[in-house]
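User: Show me a protein chain along with its predicted structure.
Assistant: Here is one chain, sequence first, then structure tokens.
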Amino acid sequence: MEYTVFGYIRYYWTDKRFAGKFSETIRLKGSTVECAWIPDTYVTNTRESNLMAENSDVGSVFEIHPNGTIFYSRSYKIVAACDMRLEHFPMDTQKCSLYLASYGYEKDNVIYKWKDGAGKVEKKSIAQFDMNEVELNSTTILYVSGNYSVLIISFYFKRRLGYYIIQVFFPNTLVVVMSWIVFWLDPRDTSDRVGLGITTILTIMFLLGSVNMSLPRVSYPKAIDWYLIGSFLFVFLVLMECILVYILRPRNRDSKNSVQRKDLDLEMSTINNLQVGITNCC
């Protein structure tokens, strides 16, 4: 339920006190940046961030233009919370947002606005997701201390299905098909039939556990859970069929055949004994 963002935040604002006092652009570096006023931006849904770090001059640029326009840019790393809905996992689409606001200045003092062309994403393809869309919004949020201007950038991710087809769906389908082998086994081979059914059940339970191990512990079933539960029911019914065949198969006929075989063996042994006796008498 979290994601990491690496990027740059670029600020543009105008300070009329600097207008007409410089003939060329002035760039501040190092510790001199701390002497200037910079926005105290923070992310409201962050879990870890370097936006408000003390060494804010690291990886930053601060320029004052002759017309009073100020440009400030700095790199950042943000680990933000994302409330994902996993009902359709792994065929799901997620929306993860960043909420940027001023920490100490209310809307009367600082108003955030998106500049044209903002929200560019260089790398839209990652291991498990494809980024479909980036949405920019702005709003005002009321806190106890007052109203604050907030910028919202939302990323829409679509999960790639290939990994789960290779690692879950395809192997699980083969396990279910393998459980059907018991239908061609001799009904009297109960140990082999039951052993194969139990093995396939344990394999599906292992797949179910391995998939959910890397996911948040949500209290609702996901799409892949329904698929694995359905596969489990198929294999379980195969195991029940083996047990019913063992219980309902006609044992009387087998016992009667065994008695007949015993009688036949007794008659053959008697005949052999008679033949031996007659040979000895002769």
